[in-house]
Amino acid sequence: MCIRTWRLVLTGGAIVILGAAGIGLVAAAGTPTSSTANLVSTLATPGPNTTAAPTRPLDRQRLGNRAARAARLLRLGRRIVHVEATVTDRDGNLITIWLDHGTVQSVGGGSLTIAETGGNTTTVKTDADTIVRIARQDGSLDDVKAGVEVFVQSRVTNGVTLAKRILIIPSRPTT
Question: Which residue segments constitute the domains of the chain, with CATH numbers given?
Fold first, then answer.
């Protein structure tokens, strides 16, 4: 069976975009949080002894648009099951990164098993350097429980998959 070149290119492009979106989601979840109200008041209030014109306050509509984009990105990210990417690190060495999304099946003994959509399971090792985030808050490995939805960014070295970051997704509100 012959697959046309444009279909291969289109499929490959979609995989790269979804992978980048998933990695971006995990990275965005790792950014520190700050209160929007504090940010607006801090930017709008000039400090003492300043003669420069005050900066304009952040527009609430722009902040709302940013939240809407984040919600759309999360909806897209929830469709990701498994992404494998080979990239270069800071030193120019090739490394393999996995991004897995699913429900925690079991955790303990230095490993985490994730049940992915489609019936597959993935087991990754964890260590003291594994970063855990609960939505936008810091967490710990003790917060990872069976049944929670997670994104796991792992590094594969010599056949061993080590979780670098775990993002616990809060449960969806029921209506």
Answer: 1-44+58-175 (2.40.50.320)
